[in-house]
User: Fold these one by one.
Assistant:
Number 1:
Amino acid sequence: MNPVLAVALKEFQDGLRNRWLVSITCIFALLSLGLSYYGTVASGHIGPPSLSSTIASLSSLSVFIIPLIALLLCYDSFVGEQESGTLLLLMTYPISHFQLLFGKFLGQGCIITLATTLGFGSAAVMLSVTSNIVGVMPSFGLFILTSTLLGLCFISLAYLISLLVNEKSKAAGVSLILWLFFVIIFDLVLLGVLVGGDEILTQHGLVQMMMFNPADLFRLVNLSSLSTSDVNGVLAVAINSSYSTSTLLVAMVAWVISPLLLALVIFRKKTL
Amino acid sequence: MSQPIVLLENITKQYKQLHALDCIDLSLNSGEVLGLFGHNGAGKTTMMKLILGVISATSGNLSVFGVNPTDRQAWHSRRQIGYLPENVSFYDQLTGLEVLTYFARLKSVPKAQVHALLEQVGLMHAVHRQVKTYSKGMRQRLGLAQAFLGEPKLLLLDEPTVGLDPIATQEFYASVDNLKNSGASVILCSHVLPGVEQHIDRALILSKGKSIATGSLNELRQQAQLPVVIKAHGLNGALAKNQALSGFMVKANQLHIPEDMKLATIRELLRYDALSDLQVEAANLEQIYQHFLNTPNPKSEVNS
């Protein structure tokens, strides 16, 4: 068997055995089902759920949860194996650094992909069956695609951390800081610059800044496809001058690939 | 003469300030079992990592199966190498069978061998249990099965008998002997000295990264000039009166005789009718080991 496949299969098996797949899928399903039912209550009126408000609230919640889950799933991928001695053993096997890294990415990426598809997909199916809203599938399709990309991006970032540090506890700490940075601090700083320093950032400049944060990219893609009335905050400003959805998707893919490549370079130089 | 499987020439490995290995020479032919001994931190694991190609040497020539193990061409010979790391804990969530299947896939070993090996190391009853429920000895057995995958031509075993019960240890040495007879070379590193000696052809004793003694057990015994211990019972003080022997007396019934005088002494002792029992013990590996580690490094003195 191809070593990449063997590693991917084992990582997937591990994810099943740890109940990662089941629990992530359940979290996503509960989240999306709950929001599509009660999402309208949160915005103060009772009525049939509107698609855009559902997606808007889903994406503002997912942007916190998906990166956290991806980091938790993968932060110990390498440093954990290094501590238990299996990484050294694997490097004596006929498998290259690239094959091991890519195999792991494939296996754990499958877990995230499957979880977002099943979890969020369940809400999409429910919405299209119980209500007569048009365009559920395309909107949710884009949402699931970007959620997956967001998850994959944070998996590659987690690998990068896992290869940079030599202790599991450090990897966990750095992952948490990274999460805080991308999900909360980055936006706070942007908002501060927008409010405090006038005319430092143009609208276009703001969107360009957001390219440096995969979490913001995720929000941009999803919210720009909705009607703007459901969106507020920094994003409302950004959305109006947004790039096309496909450009944003390409940027997200770049955010998946570049940390992975960097991780490979570090892995090759790492002494065991 | 065939080419040696492992060849180290003047190998030095330096970690920043630390001399992990210093000018090591070694050659290992096929079918040979080398015992690697030394105190903790003497450089045994570093040497194994070098041979495995996981790290590269600071200076010196190294070849395994005729190629440098860090080269790209060495990649294919990795399938012929079995390695048991010192402290390995396998994936706790997976079962023993799944763990071994994973390693077998990576080594492109047929699945039938996985079962055969699990049978051989006596883990058949636990193959479907998760590794986290395994005892230390069972994990060690799993590690051994992993090292034996794919009928390796070169085996590197770091502390293979740690945690094994006496019967499992015997079975382990039996499998090492089998592999040796089929032409495999083995490098075995162990702290449990008794029991190893019958199974190794040569020993290399490391201390602080330097090789302080190398050779077969007989050669080492001669180098160390350790006495043969002879215990003669039932003589009731007659030994002390024997002028030829009294000089070697340690206790009332115990003599420490140089190796070359062994037979002469035994003949002498047999002349006493009162002799009821005679025990002859050549210096064992443990004594040789202690001798070399305790005497100040003779080789480096010669060099300097």
Note: Chain B touches chain A at residues 49, 52-55, 75-76, 78-79, 81, 83, 85-91, 93-94, 98, 102-103, 105-108, 130, 146 (CB under 8 Å).
Number 2:
Amino acid sequence: MRLSRLRHKKVRSLDGETIGRVHEVHCEGGRVTAFMCGPGGFIERWTGLRHGGRIPWELVRRIEDDAIIVSTDPPQKKPSASRSRQGTPRPSAPRSKR
Amino acid sequence: MTPDGRIKLVSELLDLPLIDSEGKYCGIVDDIEFEGTRELKLGALLVGPGAYAGRLPGWIMWLIDRIAGDRIVRVPMTTVRTITDAVHLKCPGRELGLHRSEAAAARWIPHKGAM
Amino acid sequence: MNPLELTLGIMTAVGGFVDISELVFAAKSGSTFGYALIWVFAVGTIGIIVFSEMSGRVAAVAKQPVFNLMRHRLGLKLGLVTLAASAISNLITCAAEVGGVALILNYLTGAPYLLMAILMVAGMIASIWILPFAWIERIYGLLGLFMLVFVAALVAIDPPWDKIARGFVPQVPHGLSTKELLTFAYFSVAILSAVMFPYEVYFYSSGGIEEGWGPKDILTNRMTSIIGMGLGSTLAIAILASSAQLFGPANVDPAIPGTAALESAIPFGRWGLVLALLGMFFAVSGAAVETCMANAYGISQFFGWMWGRHKKPWEAPRYTLTWIALFLLALLIVLTGVDVMTLVEFAILFSILVLPLTYLPLLLLAGDKKYMREHVNGPFAKTLGWLYFAIITSAAVAALPLYFLTSGGNG
């Protein structure tokens, strides 16, 4: 799998609702932890600010040819502390620059 | 930052130049390869005109293939030292096959006359 | 700050300011509209100072050339569009400069124009091959100071200084017909384009990296940009003012570059003519070398190749083959027999269309704290930068319609 295949892919919920398109992928410790989807990819790239919604990788159910299917339910709580944000994959308010 | 740090792949890694341990430019990060299916891990940086596929329309890829070929060089993430305004490698680019095109072009250049 | 380095830098910027497009449009502006377009040269000069200073600062602080950073910011698709557009613009500009040099050599020696074009390209290729970067920049820039004869010629013909001073005030002459108004607008756009050619920023920024600039050179960069280019623009304004005084009243249309040399011949005779032609020869040759190298910089940096004339030609082979190929392509264009003035028109047109794509990434980079740290654009640079971006975008939108409506400024 390449970044070029993930990027600009549609993101849909299990109900079939289109949430947006992938425009950024976050990594930590060499692993993909989340991606950003929704409008504003061009703005984020040019300004470094976040726009659109952040979807933790744990919510991804499967990757199809034309879309990434995500669950809108939070994942099962794991015994060890999880660092990624839990929540519904809705476009959130813009966060500050890292 | 190091490859283990927090990184945004599109805005902080993709399309960065690669500089090897000898300070030589050896390409641009044209795409990024993941390992795994359920859990995606950073596997390698892809360098070369073949890595444009998936980023450019088909007719431009046809043109690029005619002009520059479809070569791809895989740069394993284990060879990356730091990622800042460029990707700095731990080893010389030739050990990864990154200087082949420069070497091919160098055969046309006479080694004389320059101050 | 090394005073000798600074002085050399300023003198190089002065001698290297004028190229074939500025030469042609300064003379034509003066003969057609008198002193009324001086303010456009001044506006364009401030613009190129703003963006040159930014590009030099980005090179000194980020230590990455503009095209590397541009590709990272724009991405592959839009970056390729920018690269292709600027490569075509620079190639046509280079062809115009090569044609201009060949024409000037034809005036100086009487030898055939096309033969002079071939010999000049061979000479320029040899000069870039043999000389290190600093020598290339200094030799062409310093020998371009022969152009100062135009300033001396202006003083010698005792022009109306009050009218020249008033020319710096933004104005549109009264009583122009609609066609003349459109031609005035076209000349304004053309002058802006000629003064703010994209290759100047690419060459200046890459040159900063060639010379190993760091944050300690930021003041040198600023002084070179402001003083060097400010003084350099006096050469172009002197050509315009002399043309207004000598050619305008006589209804002489300086349709060919050689006519501008008469501005020096009239007060100084044969020696004035020779010095003017020598100045034009070195200034335009320098511009040909800069456009070719700037084009090769852009292509090499975009694809991550080894680049730069601080290396020997065989240490950056793809870069070397690229600038040689570009020179040969420019020569091929000239050998088709296309008129130099036509090449100048196309160079101007392509350049203004590409300018917004060129300067926007630079503006964003110079304003990005991640790259620039404490040397990021302050409020003054930010304001000027965005103001000029609005100006060049408006000019880019107006350029094509004005070109067709005025038949390339010919009314």
Note: The longest strand of chain A covers residues 18-28.
